[in-house]
Amino acid sequence: MSVESSLLFALAAVAVVVIVRWAADRTGLPAAALLPVIGIGYALLPGPNVTLDPEIVLTFVLPPLLYSAALDSSLLAIRRNLRTVVSLSVVLVLLTALVIGFGFAWFVTGATLAAGIAVGAAVAPPDPVAALAVGRKVGLPPRLLTLIQGEGLLNDATALTILSVAVAAATGGGFSAPSALGQFLAAVLGGIVVGVLVAYVVRLLSRPLGGDPLTANAVSLATPFAAYLIGERLHVSGVLAVVVAGLIVGHHRPRSASGASRLQTNAVWRFVDFLLEGFVFLLIGQQLPTVIRGLAAYDTSTIVIAVVITTGTVLLLRPLWLILTQSLPRSLHTRLGGDGTDVDRSERLTGREVAVLSWSGTRGVISLAAIFTLPSVTDGGAPFPARDLLLFCTFVVVLVTLVGQGLTFAPIVRKLGLRADETDQARLRNEARSASVEAALDTLDELEAQAHDDLRTHLVDTMRGQLRARMARYRGRLDLLRSDEPVSPGYEAALHIRRVTIDAQREELLRWRDAGRLPDEGLRVLERELDLEERLLPDRPARR
């Protein structure tokens, strides 16, 4: 493919991603479920196609996506729900790999236990992109979003480590349970240490460099690749290093980065997520010709049995595991890390929450990238056991979960009526706003008590008046939120007036620019001020 053809292909892919995103916003369907279907349609047409390169995905795509998700996650929330997150991202991944592995060894002709565990490790980790997009749109409670996000951050490291052990056994390296366990623990602990060290270095750099948004953004973009490469060079989990670094940097970013840096970094990462996620989901569908190319060597019954084992295990084991872990006796919960208090008991999932989490296990490009890393031959020169069959089974699991669960996730959530209490969340935000204004007023009182001139007295009084007006606005919102009707017509009218006045200011600035009275550089400065003011307005008044 020539350079011009490659560029044309990339532009066409961007156009498809943009159109699908536009359609998804208006139909309520997740773009992550629509893009693979379009990719399959394109793969069936004559013309150039893109074959998934696992090294590119694991090195250039996975680190930034995981790091961006970690930056937006809550380290404190994940730590509060750590037992459930570890249960899903470590224990369930291992159990899924083992169940599929033994299923292949017992029922699939030509497959070995190691080959079965390899495909089990590939399909075990859910890709939460589709579930999170739908969950945020329908208003899932924050705890469920934390569990879905925390599981998606940590399960890739578990799956890739299990996969490497299984591949070593399948290619002739032999298998030893103590050695495999030691390798897994070394990869996990080493990845955590690398992630902590990278986060520490980033925090040190953020102090002298954080004032410049462009420099801070460059450091942020380089961080996930640095963490991944260092981890892989040290033969530990580079994926886990990226996640740990992102969680720590995201937790400390409110103190270490300037406001301008955070605004620009957040915007850039949203753009990176948009493009990368769109490309990888489009890429999934285009792998259809590759995964079906080698199926002619297998009987139909063998293919059906293998697909049923992998898909059935993925769909059934997750709800069974959630039900089992939530039904454990209280004494066993205590021995597993709980303290038996009412707070600990309240952490158990309800039946509706179990149902939602059970249906949130969509698989994605990581599963395909992992299975494509399987070698073609073993160390002895023999073909890798059932490699083409493993690729097809993985593709079916990804397609069934991503499209099937992705398209039905929102209706199931709505049917169960599981939504966050938006009034409580809005009340908490306004209480925090009021507390921050009170802290500012206390600081003004301390400044006023210091030696100062009349000019400072005037400035302090002016600022105090502005803060008190803001406090009155927040308290008015709290009064509305504590009433039976959280949003009044007057509040919505006030938001409309603010938007209209901002639009009027923009139009006047443009008239000045068009008349030659204001240079474009000055227009951009003033326009940014209005953009920031507009950004503070709620998108949906009912949620504020």
UniProtKB/TrEMBL annotation:
Claim: Metal-binding is one of the keywords in the record: no
Organism the protein comes from: Virgisporangium aliadipatigenens
Transmembrane spans: 6-24, 31-50, 56-78, 85-107, 153-175, 181-202, 236-253, 274-296, 302-324, 354-377, 389-410
Principal localisation: membrane
GO MF terms, alphabetically ordered: potassium:proton antiporter activity; sodium:proton antiporter activity
Similarity field: Belongs to the monovalent cation:proton antiporter 1 (CPA1) transporter (TC 2.A.36) family.
UniProt entry keywords in alphabetical sequence: Antiport, Cell membrane, Ion transport, Membrane, Sodium, Sodium transport, Transmembrane, Transmembrane helix, Transport
Membrane topology value: Multi-pass membrane protein
Name recorded for this polypeptide: Na+/H+ antiporter
Pfam families: Na_H_Exchanger
Biological-process GO terms, alphabetical: regulation of intracellular pH; sodium ion import across plasma membrane
NCBIfam families listed in its UniProt record: a_cpa1
Residue span(s) of domain Cation/H+ exchanger transmembrane: 15-415
Location in or out of the cell: Cell membrane
Biological role stated in the UniProt entry: Na(+)/H(+) antiporter that extrudes sodium in exchange for external protons.
Listed GO CC annotations: plasma membrane
